[in-house]
């Protein structure tokens, strides 16, 4: 990791580096967009034929292998799973469900002088959950995307994952047993996103697509967002630790853990405690030995910023709007404005949030944390407003609406109120 002081002789260089990181964006998809557009169009026009072509070429799908994963295959994977992993999955699922249930918004009504206003909450009819199947099996991502959809009451949940690992299939069986509203297809990449957005003979289209993915998946999600909803663009994993008193070994362990996700992962420590910065730098070097991906990431995208003050450290943290943020104490939450998920104190490793805490691990990257939080039950719900007037209430409130309508030159709007006031 590079240690950079934001003051003194290195102030200008540090400012340029911070500006580059600040403007990183969620991900640059322009270099893959031409390929992705061709895949989307091909699947849209040729359906299952194109879907199988890409699945065979990119994921090695055999001609006689069905796209739809049979329930028996999921069940067999669950039975072949070690008891301790089964227990861990059940624990994670239960915590994710409990957290999502607490997040669910309420329906309510306000009644005043003959005017009733309120909201009703309805689930989306169908969603697609993308579960990556590349470098690592990610059964946790299946649980993180499917469980809040189930809590929301989504009737049709479609999972797409290329070359699904046994662990991912086992997690699918656990989710299927929980609600029996699950379809699982062994497809991935831009072709899976196209199938979910436009539909094929085998896979009916969905209302919204959620879940992380590689550059091709992200580009595809962004391109089909005019056709169906998406959660957010996804970029490489990010971690920021903003600390004055943290444990150097623990901080380094979190930095290495997130860095091993991707060679382009961003890993940053921000502190005004120079001694802590130096100690973390040493610890990271030691702990990343033998971890090739983490080493690559930390060498190119690992930074320790030593600031002149804690106020500067906090301001820099909010500027970067990280996906994962670790702070020293609960009192730090007062200054946090932009982050995907916050971890507090020495005993809250970010890996707990990746797996079992309950809050979702599908989080905003690329400073998207300035405008939204992580995936939640809200992503699978619609809040629909409701309003009702009595005649007396309309006669009392209607003249105000008429005045506003006429001020905007919308005489039809004014008349729609006036005719009911007679």
Provide an overview of this structure:
The protein has 422 residues and is an alpha/beta fold. Helix content is 46%, strand content 17%. The chain has 16 helices and 14 strands. The chain has helices at 11-22, 33-46, 48-59, 71-79, 83-103, 139-152, 166-179, 189-198, 215-224, 248-259, 274-287, 292-301, 310-320, 350-355, 391-407, 411-418; strands at residues 2-5, 108-112, 115-123, 126-130, 156-160, 182-185, 208-210, 229-230, 238-242, 266-271, 302-306, 324-327, 341-344, 381-389. The strands form 3 sheets. A 6-stranded parallel sheet has the order 1-11-10-9-12-13, with helices on both faces. The longest helix is centred in the first third of the chain and has 21 residues, at 83-103. The chain is globular and about 80 Å long. The mean pLDDT is 95.
The secondary-structure class comes to alpha/beta
Which percent range fits the helix content? 40-55%
Biggest sheet details: 6 strands, parallel
Helix and strand string, N-terminal first? EHHHHHEEEHEHEHEHEEHEHHEHEEHEHH
The tally of beta strands, per DSSP, is 14
Q: Count of helical segments?
A: 16
If you compute it from the alpha carbons, what radius of gyration comes out, rounded to the nearest whole angstrom? 25 Å
Strands of the widest sheet, in order across it, are 1-11-10-9-12-13
Overall geometric form = globular
End-to-end C-alpha gap? 75 Å
Average pLDDT over all residues: 95
Q: Which regions are unreliable across 5 or more consecutive residues at pLDDT < 50?
A: none
Strand-residue fraction?
15-25%
């Amino acid at each position: 990791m590079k240690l950079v002081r934001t003051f003194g002789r290195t102030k200008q260089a540090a400012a340029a580096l911070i500006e580059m990181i600040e403007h990183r964006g969620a991900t640059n998809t322009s270099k893959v967009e031409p390929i992705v557009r061709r895949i989307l169009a091909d699947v849209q026009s040729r359906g299952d034929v194109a879907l199988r072509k890409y699945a065979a070429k990119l994921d090695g799908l055999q001609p006689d292998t069905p796209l739809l994963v049979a329930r028996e295959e999921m069940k067999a994977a669950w039975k072949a799973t070690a008891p301790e992993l089964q227990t861990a999955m059940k624990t994670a699922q239960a915590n994710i469900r409990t957290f999502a249930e607490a997040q669910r918004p309420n329906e309510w009504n306000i009644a005043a002088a003959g005017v009733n206003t309120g909201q009703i909450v309805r689930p989306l009819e169908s969603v697609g959950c993308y579960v990556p199947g590349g470098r690592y099996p990610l059964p946790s991502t299946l649980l993180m995307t499917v469980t809040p959809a189930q809590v929301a009451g989504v009737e049709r949940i479609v999972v797409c994952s290329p070359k699904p690992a046994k662990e991912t299939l086992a997690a699918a069986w656990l989710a299927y047993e929980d609600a029996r509203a699950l379809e699982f297809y062994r497809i991935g990449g831009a072709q899976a996103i196209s199938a979910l957005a436009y539909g094929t003979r085998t896979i009916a289209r969905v209302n919204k697509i959620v879940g992380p993915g590689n550059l091709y998946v992200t580009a595809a999600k962004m391109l089909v967002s005019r056709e169906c909803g998406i959660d957010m663009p996804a970029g490489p994993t990010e971690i920021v630790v903003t600390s004055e008193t943290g444990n150097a070994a623990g901080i380094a362990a979190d930095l290495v853990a997130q860095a091993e996700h991707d060679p382009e992962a961003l890993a940053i420590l921000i502190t005004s405690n120079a001694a802590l910065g130096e100690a973390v730098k040493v610890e990271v070097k030691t702990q990343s030995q033998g971890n090739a991906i983490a080493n690559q990431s930390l060498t190119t995208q690992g930074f320790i910023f030593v600031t002149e003050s804690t106020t500067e450290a906090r301001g820099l943290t909010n500027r970067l709007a990280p996906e994962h943020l670790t702070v020293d104490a609960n009192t730090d939450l007062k200054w946090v404005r932009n982050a995907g998920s916050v971890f507090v104190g020495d005993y809250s490793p970010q890996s707990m949030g990746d797996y079992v805490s309950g809050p979702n691990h599908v989080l905003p990257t690329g400073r998207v944390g300035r405008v939204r939080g992580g995936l939640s039950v809200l992503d699978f719900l619609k809040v629909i407003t409701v309003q009702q007037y009595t005649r007396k209430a309309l006669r009392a409130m209607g003249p105000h609406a008429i005045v506003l309508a006429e001020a905007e030159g919308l005489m039809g709007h004014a008349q729609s109120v006036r005719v009911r006031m007679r």
